[in-house]
Amino acid sequence: MTRRFHSFRAAAIFSILIVTFVLTGCASLTRPHTITFSEADMARLMNQHGPFERRLLEVLDVRINRPTVRLLPQTARLASDFEAVTTERVSGKTYQGRLSIDYGLRYDDFLQAIRLSQVHVNDLRIAGLPSPQQAGLHRLGALIAEEMLEGAVIYRFKPSDLKTAEGRGLRPGDVAVTSKGVQITLSPISR
Question: What is the mean pLDDT of residues 95-124?
């Protein structure tokens, strides 16, 4: 009788362990996962998708490149400094400068990409310009830079990666800036 009791008890414990394992496995399938990009990763991604270039009114060519990236977890944003190069098309004269911005990030489901959002220019300085022109350039340049960088794609998911995530019932969603880096949450697909 004791032998039968021990066999029954072992089978019951084994069954409980299997049920616990299965439930834990199911829970992990519905729990969100994250992908984290460090500051260095973000600078590399920004650099890969740059330089950002725009021709303005067929008069001025603007190029923004060589970004640095800083995490601003307290405001859930990032900050970047860029080299700014402007060239007058008529005279061919080139001016060097610096552009400092802060911005958020968002996932664009249609493009399957991470994009800059709510870009704000903090400073724009072009060397060699007199003070009155510098002030006017700062106002106009800030608007141009914000429009130029708003929505810029800095990371595009590979279709194969999205298909793999989808096969596991996950899809990209929220993008958060933390002290560890930029975290992209892979959340369960709503069915």
Answer: 92
